[in-house]
Structures are given as structure tokens and as C-alpha cells.
Amino acid sequence: MRKNLKNLLISLGFLIAACALCLALRQIDNDTSGAQLVFVLAILLISRFTDGYVWGVLASILSVIAVNYAFTYPYFRFNLSISGYLITFITMLAVSLIVSVLTSRIKRQEHLRIEAERERLRTDLLRAVSHDLRTPLTSIVGSTGAILENELPPEKQRELIADTHADAQWLLRMIENLLAITRVSTDTQPLRMETEVVEEVLADAVIKFGKHFPQLPVEMSMPDEILLADMEPMLIGQVVTNLLENAAYHGEHASRIQLTLRRENGFVQVEVTDDGVGVPPELLPRIFSENAVSAHRRGADARRGMGIGLSVCMSIVKAHGGTMFAKNNPGGGATFGFSLPEKENIYGSSGTDSDR
User: Fold this and answer.
1) Which of 76, 125, 311, 342 is least enclosed, having the fewest CB within 10 Å?
2) CA torsion through residues 192, 197, 201, 202, sign
């Protein structure tokens, strides 16, 4: 019911606007020869912004009636006796109907394309998850089985319990990623956007990261000015957490991580830099795909899928109107980052970047 009311208001709005424009043109130079084109444009816009064929078809019929009655001499009277008139308006009706049908068909094809892309995303994600979940689950089953079935020394039991706890924590973070990407891959739950101070969202993510990786310090380089952006803070916090965990898991021998925030050409840019081994150059062009690192996993890396975490980040950032990037640093290590459209700070502030 609400959708039909919306479509009706859109259709009436464009038809009334077309009538007003044609009346204005008639007042200016008493010429209504362009009325047909004006109404064809209105039909095109109605077909574009409404759902289904019905509204475009109805607009086509009403447009023919309106042009006949109000914009063909004698005005405000129906007249089908003018030479060639009937053919002219049959042609107009046919053109209007064709435009309406073609526009609706294009919209439907675009909708099907989007649905196919979402289905591909779900399929690829499920395929990647099936690989990434198998190893930690196997480890948990093995560790708990060893404790239950064997008389192990307390030290060995504690070691196995610690391993199980670490695997369970990783599974929990994986589920958070899955929930996040499910949110942004469907339009049934639109993002709840709020204007946030970006530095505060980053600080919360660093605190969350520090609880799991107390041995790996994060240096924050923040500007003196306050940078704002429209976002769903929980999802953007998930992006920052994923990038920090990515540096911890895949940096290999990384001793520090730097988190940088700055303004860049109307965007707020966030970068996570580590001093590890960097990313294989052949992997960089496809680093944000779900199974990007399947051929490059080594040892314990096999249970922590960088591809899934980064694909989650890409989906979330794109849903916020931003972009992501990855690069290797000249001095070693890698930088992963993203940009979001900056929200104007009505209070105004200025300053230079400073490390905090």
C-alpha cells in the first residue's frame, strides 16, 4: 500500500510538472508544439522512478488525453477531427508505451543483475568460510578430546585449553564478520547512518584490538582538527578491527602497527601500517576478494582467512560510499586503508597532524 501511494505521488508529480511547463510555454509564445516531447520526458521519468509497467502505461494514456485536451487547439476541448491528428496521437501513445516498457525492462534487468551479484557474493563467501572454519573447529575438537580422553599433566591441559580459547575467539570474530557482510549485502536492512567523530570510532577499535593482542602496540596518528563522517559506527569499527587483526595475523614478525587518520580531498582517510613482510606483489590486485590468499597460506595462516576479513571490509566501505586500497611500503611492511566522504564540521576547527 505504501509503495503504491509512493508510485502514485511520483506519477502525479511528474504529470503536473509537465502540465505546468507546457502552460508556461504557451503563455510565453503561445506555442504548444513541444507539449508532446515534454510529456514523453515525463513518462520516461515516471517509468524510471516507479515500480513495474503499470504506472508508465497509465501515464502514457493520461499524457495523450492531456495533450489532446489542454495543449491542442481548440484548447480545453477534445478534437479528433483535425487532419492527421489521430495518427499523430496514436504515434505518441505508441512511443510513450514503448519508452515505458523499455525503461521498466532495463530496471528489471538491473535488479536481476544486482541479485545475481549478491548471490555470487553469498556463494563465494560460503565457499571461503567452509575452508576457514574447518581447521579451528578440528583443533577445538582435538584439544577437548585429548583433555577428556587422557590423563594429562596440568601444564599440558592448560596449554590445550589456551589453544581452544584462542580458536573460539577467532571463530567469534569470524561470525561477527559474517553478520556484518550479511547486513551490507542485502537492502532489507538499510544502514543506520549517524554523523560520528571518526577518531572516537578508531579509538574504540584500538581498545578492542588491544584486549586480544596486548603484545602488539598500536600507535595512533590523529589530526588536531575534528573529522566527521556519516557511518554506522559498529560496522566501520569492524573494518578498523579487521585491518588491525590482519596486520597482526599476516604481518609476520610485525613489531608495531600505526593507525593514521587525515583529511584527503573531501574524504577522511584511515590507514593501518605495519612493519612486517608485506603482501606478495601478485596478490595485491585481488587482495580484497574472498579467496585471495588461498594459494598463499602457510602453516597457522591456514586457519585465518585474510580474504574473508578484507572482503567484509570492502563491502562495508562501499556501502558507506567509500573506497579501499592496499600497498606495500618501500621500507617494508604493508598499508591497508579506506576513505569515507567527510561530513562538514559546522563548529569548525583547524590544526596540523600530530601523533597521539
Assistant:
1) 76
2) positive
- Beta partners for 223? 353
Sign of the torsion angle spanned by Cα atoms 181, 186, 189, 191: positive
Q: Which three cell numbers stand for residue 304?
A: 585465518
Please name each of the domains of the chain with its CATH number: 2-113 (no CATH), 192-356 (3.30.565.10)
What are the helix (H) ranges across 30-84? 35-49, 54-70
Helix (H, G, I), strand (E, B) or coil at 232: coil
Is residue 217 helix, strand or coil? coil
Centre a 10 Å sphere on the Cβ of residue 137 and count the other Cβ atoms it contains. Answer: 13
Which pTM was predicted? 0.56
Alpha-carbon span 60 to 58, nearest angstrom? 5
pLDDT for 231-264, tens place per residue?
A: 988 889 888 988 998 888 877 778 889 999 999 9
Query: Residues near 133 by Cβ (< 8 Å), separated by ≥ 6?
Result: 171, 174
Q: What are the cell numbers at 240?
A: 578498523
Cβ atoms within 10 Å of 25's Cβ, excluding its own: 17
Unique residue bearing C-alpha cell 509512493:
6
Residue with the three cell numbers 507539449? 35
Q: Mind listing the pLDDT tens digit for each residue in 281-316?
A: 888 888 887 555 444 444 444 444 444 568 778 888
CB atoms within 10 A of CB 225: 15
Question: Helices 198-212 & 233-250, crossing angle to 10 degrees?
Answer: 40
